[in-house]
UniProtKB/TrEMBL annotation:
The lineage of its organism: Bacteria, Bacillati, Bacillota, Bacilli, Bacillales. This is Uncharacterized protein.
Length: 51
C-alpha cells in the first residue's frame, strides 16, 4: 500500500477521494495516478512480516 496526496477529486472502490487529502491506495494504483497527475506519492510502505 502507498500513501498518496490527491491532486484532483475522484472515486476509488466506491469512496470519494477529495483533492488535497491523503489516502492509502494500492501501490500499482498510486504509481498510475502519479504518472497521470491524479495524485502524488507521499510514501510507500514496505511489506514486512511481523510475527
Amino acid at each position: 500500500m502507498t500513501m498518496v496526496k490527491m491532486i484532483v477529486q475522484t472515486t476509488y472502490n466506491g469512496q470519494l477521494l477529495r483533492a488535497g487529502k491523503e489516502y492509502e491506495v494500492a501501490s500499482e494504483t498510486a504509481h498510475r495516478w502519479d504518472v497521470s497527475n491524479i495524485a502524488k506519492i507521499v510514501s510507500a510502505e514496505t511489506e514486512e512480516n511481523h510475527e
